[in-house]
Structures are given as structure tokens and as C-alpha cells.
Prior knowledge:
Strand content: 15-25%
Radius of gyration: 16 Å
Helix content: 25-40%
CATH class: Alpha Beta
Distance between the termini: 12 Å
Number of domains: 1
Structural class: alpha/beta
CATH architecture: 3-Layer(aba) Sandwich
Number of strands: 10
Largest sheet: 7 strands, parallel
Amino acid sequence: MEILPDGPALAERAADLVAEELAKAVAARGRATLAVSGGSTPAAFLAALAERAVPWEAVHVFQVDERVAPEGHPDRNLTGLRAALLDRVPIPPANVHAMPVEEPDLERASAAYAEEIRAVTGGDGSIDVVHLGLGDDGHTASWPPGDPVVDATDDVAVVGPFNGRLRMTLTPPAVNRAGRIVWLIAGADKAPVVARLLAGDPALPSSRVRRHDVTLLADAAAGR
């Protein structure tokens, strides 16, 4: 766990860490994979990452979770991801892997997305870097409290409605297969749940995330 003094420092540290991990993966295998969560906290981090010297032509970007909504809708995590990062870096369009939430058969689309991850990662489904956030209710990705998604065996699932929307999400097996997991947590409202997460409270969906090869970055308000 690292505690940063404020939001800007948190974003810069996260960008440095993720850029370093992506560069190492490209140097080792000629490509890197990154999965990004939604929410309000990641915007500054993604904007900072856009300013880093990352070999974007060799990076594939996936989504950790997405709301079921039309393309371009402000509820879509992809909308913010494009504005903060993807439209600002020279990443090939084919390297952007949006969750297929506009498909009529979401269960089939989830299975197809899992296969897409495996195809890009060489068959094992291990994403190099998975970025996670934390809700004040203890959720991460789109794993609502009390939802059976935390016990899913498939890599991608449909959940909800959660806060008014159906969601598509990576499941605990897919997240925990990552090379590096990076939590990004900000705000005083997160402090109580951060303490519970660190204590391993099994009631929290976020406690299903493994505890090795994980970096938890929090601002001073969340990490107090």
C-alpha cells in the first residue's frame, strides 16, 4: 500500500507504475495488455498515463467492467476512457477491446469477450495489468455486494441491474490471473472500506481479489 498526499499525486504515481509495467511486458513479449475499470477516480490517472512514453502500438486495452448502454452514452465507461486516454495516444484501433454490451445476447457476448482476451494473451487469459477501484459499499469491478458473480467460474459475466444498469464485468478468476493488480482509491468516504479491505473482511466483494503482486494506491483521505 502506498499513500499519496492528494489526487494529482495519486494519478501521477499510478501512471508511472502502470507505464512501467506495460513497458516491461512489451520488452519481454512484444506486447502488453491493460484492463481499466470505470468510475470517477480513474480519469486523472488515465490523462496522466496518456502523457507517459508508452509503446502504445504494442499495447492492447480491455475493460474491467462496463454498463449496458448505447455507444457514446455518458454512462458508458468507454466514453470516459476514450476521452481521457484512447483518443490522446497512438494506439491502433484494433488494440482497443471494448466490452460488447450493445449485443442482444449478453451472455454470448460475455463468452466471446473472454475468448477475445485469451486470443490476445496467448491462450492463458492473463492480462498484464488490471486496474481496480473501490466503492464505498465494498464493490470492485462490477461485483455488487451479495451478487453471486464473486463465485463465478467464467472469466466474464453479466450482473445487475446494479445502480440502475446491467453490467458486464471481469470476474474474480480473470482479475486474479493478472500479472499485476493496481488499486486506485480516493476520497474520505472510502477510508472505512479501505480499512476493512486491508483486514480481509470476507463480507466485501473486493476481498475476493488476491493479495500478492498487488499495489494499492490511496490518497491521504482514503488511506488515513
